[in-house]
Amino acid sequence: ATSVVVIGLGRFGGALATELVRSGTEVLGVDTNEDTVQSLNGVLTHVVRADSTRQAALDQLGVADFDRIVVGIGSDIQASILTASLLKRMGVRSIWAKAISEQHGLILEQLGVDHVIYPEADMGRRVAHLVRGSMLDYVEFDRDLVVAKTIAPREIIGKTLEEAAVRRKHGITIVKIKGADGVWHAAGAASVVNEGDTLIVIGPVERTERFAALR
Amino acid sequence: ATSVVVIGLGRFGGALATELVRSGTEVLGVDTNEDTVQSLNGVLTHVVRADSTRQAALDQLGVADFDRIVVGIGSDIQASILTASLLKRMGVRSIWAKAISEQHGLILEQLGVDHVIYPEADMGRRVAHLVRGSMLDYVEFDRDLVVAKTIAPREIIGKTLEEAAVRRKHGITIVKIKGADGVWHAAGAASVVNEGDTLIVIGPVERTERFAALR
Ligand SMILES: Nc1ncnc2c1ncn2[C@@H]1O[C@H](COP(=O)(O)OP(=O)(O)OP(=O)(O)O)[C@@H](O)[C@H]1O
Ligand SMILES: Nc1ncnc2c1ncn2[C@@H]1O[C@H](COP(=O)(O)OP(=O)(O)OP(=O)(O)O)[C@@H](O)[C@H]1O
User: Fold this and answer.
1) Residue A109 and which of A69, A152, A153, B10 are 20 to 30 A apart at CA?
2) Looking at ligand 2, which atom is closest to the CA of residue B54?
3) Which of A117, A143, A162 is the last residue of a domain?
């Protein structure tokens, strides 16, 4: 998308809007809070103080002309739902909205919001795996497919990946290796893992966690 | 870790605690809010109503005996900081804490908190890439290393990965392929990608986004 409206510039919406601009996408930011609008003035392409629950405000901003709109209003569920409802009725094609509870999310889906995001819950689940294990990072990409970042376990050090037979023995695939030079290298059959190397691995949840737990 | 204390069972802490239990880790949950404690009664190993800013409460709960503690208190920065300070003075070894702003996070780091998490900001940055592009998922694993989930672009369909020369032409690596059978297959030189297949790819930020944007 070349231009996006982000309504609600809180911790989630604000970070999203800023990252969009950083990546080269134009952003129209909208928030009711004057300080918030001021703090993003000059950071986002445009920032406007407005109440997204008012049809007149949305019309004035020409919001219907944007292909993608993000609603980052969380705690104020009523405002989130009212805004989503107005946007759908205005024919906005692609809406992303934050939800703070399952009920909130279900209502947004019922209204036709295409993508409902649960930032805190998703991060809570992700960090849970870091807290219980010894992984540097962990993300679920599908129901039983996760990618993890972990320090190389002793048993594969000094061998080629083919000799270590990682996939056969551990049921996971090492995808990238970062050595002392700090550069990520593709992991191939002839790649040798050294002590202290960082690995990116992919596999099923349990296998990946078990491999990452090896010392 | 076999047992973890989670203080602050909000959207982040609650999801984290629940995921820990689901993964087989014992959890002692602590929150000041009675309804929150009740809702997690029977879900977590133990849930107690207590104020984590009071030394006496932490002593009573035997919090110092746990190896890992998560502080999921966000909006109440004062309570978050007081709690972290008490935990550090009690000699707790591994502390994970949510921060809602950079300032908040810096103070927690100054106090010696090992892992500071910014759930909303991290998710905001991640979702920004989904909103601007056409990826199904996207996660940064290092400064210029990202993993993305995307639908196979037309130009590699019907060829083996070796023929498609994806790494040479696009500077990214296809790691996994999910076909119509809904099963994730390892991506090898002889793997053939079919129309509609979902791919897990890894590579530098720009290359990966550009590859994922191919129709
Ligand atoms: N009707 C509205 N129109 C425009 N902006 C709004 C409206 N209601 C709330 N906002 C803004 O949305 C932002 C986020 O909303 P809120 O603080 O309610 O949710 P939150 O879930 O706590 O957010 P986060 O955790 O992402 O900071 C705030 O900056 C707030 O000013
Ligand atoms: N001193 C305290 N002791 C124990 N629990 C606390 C304390 N202060 C706050 N909490 C609890 O921590 C939880 C999360 O805190 P809060 O709502 O302030 O942060 P938040 O960032 O809005 O959280 P989230 O977005 O994760 O729901 C709440 O359930 C709250 O009752």
Assistant:
1) B10
2) 1
3) A117
